[in-house]
Amino acid sequence: MKAETEQVHWLVFFNDQLLLEKKDNKCVLPLGIQPPVKPLADTTIHSITTPMGQVCKAFSIDEAVHENEKFFMTGLRASYDCLPYSQYQIAGKAHEILHWDKNSNFCPACGTPTEKREPIMKKCPNCGNELYPAISTAILALIQKEDSLLLVHARNFRGPFHSLVAGFLETGETLEECVAREVMEETGLKIKNIKYFGNQPWPYPSGLMVGFIADYESGEIKLQEEELSEGRFYTKDHLPELPRRLSLARKMIDWWIEKQK
Ligand SMILES: [Zn+2]
């Protein structure tokens, strides 16, 4: 087997905590032929193929590894700040696969224990149902109005920052319909000129964020209070605290700020 003779990157998770190796005052994914910590006997070791076609190995552990001279654990989000971006991306993918693995032990149609057939496919031996990692698609909407943009604070944000309107795609709607609906539901505003900006895997736990730019058309801001605690238009020189740089939302806001110069 290839993995026994070649060094691979190891993605070892305890919940959302990722094991990292300290190296020359930086941190990296552990690299080696053998795993950096011993997995339990019944642990599934997943082969994760990166977008560049490189194979990594991932598994979950039952207890956190205490920090020592060589290793420490950090949250997946925080790993963005110290890992090379390509390694952060692989870690995100591994986290999604481990989340899927943990949540697909039984067939949702008939309750039979599933069997793993491919790196990202399980099959029910009773009814033939095939299970793949599900991805929840969510939109981000950057709404421009003259020289200002709409920023909101959602009650579920992890911090006091403000960001773009966001929401999950519903069955049967296009992404643009989702953008218009979410903006209307959350802020009461009608928008126009909805245009695609970009997208980003969002492994918390298994999402895809798709960003759109749109223009304000009409309406007064009326916040959906169960979800949002604040929301209004801000000009470039009076922006509140913004989301962290790992997010597509921040990339979109930075794009808008750049455009105001
Ligand atoms: Zn079944």
From TrEMBL:
Q: What is its EC number?
A: 3.6.1.22
Gene Ontology biological process terms from the UniProt entry: NAD+ catabolic process; NADP+ catabolic process
Output the InterPro entries linked to this UniProt entry: NAD-cap_RNA_hydrolase_NudC, NADH_PPase-like_N, NudC-like_C, Nudix_hydrolase, NUDIX_hydrolase-like_dom_sf, NUDIX_hydrolase_CS, NUDIX_hydrolase_dom, Znr_NADH_PPase
User: What are the protein's UniProt keywords?
Assistant: Hydrolase, Magnesium, Metal-binding, NAD
List the SUPFAM superfamilies hit by this protein, alphabetically.
Answer: Nudix
Q: Which PROSITE patterns match?
A: NUDIX, NUDIX_BOX
CDD domains associated with the record: NUDIX_NADH_pyrophosphatase_Nudt13
Query: One GO molecular function term?
Result: NADH pyrophosphatase activity
EC class (word)? hydrolase
Q: Which reaction does it catalyse?
A: a 5'-end NAD(+)-phospho-ribonucleoside in mRNA + H2O = a 5'-end phospho-adenosine-phospho-ribonucleoside in mRNA + beta-nicotinamide D-ribonucleotide + 2 H(+)
UniProt entry tagged with the keyword Hydrolase: yes
Gene Ontology, cellular component aspect: cytosol
One of its Pfam families is Zn_ribbon_NUD
Task: Decide whether keyword Ribosomal protein is in the record.
Answer: no
Origin: domain of life: Bacteria
Q: Which cofactor does it need?
A: Zn(2+); Mg(2+)
Domain Nudix hydrolase residues, every copy: 130-258
Question: Would you identify the family this protein belongs to, as annotated?
Answer: Belongs to the Nudix hydrolase family. NudC subfamily.
Name it: NAD(+) diphosphatase
Source organism of this protein record: Bacteroides graminisolvens DSM 19988 = JCM 15093
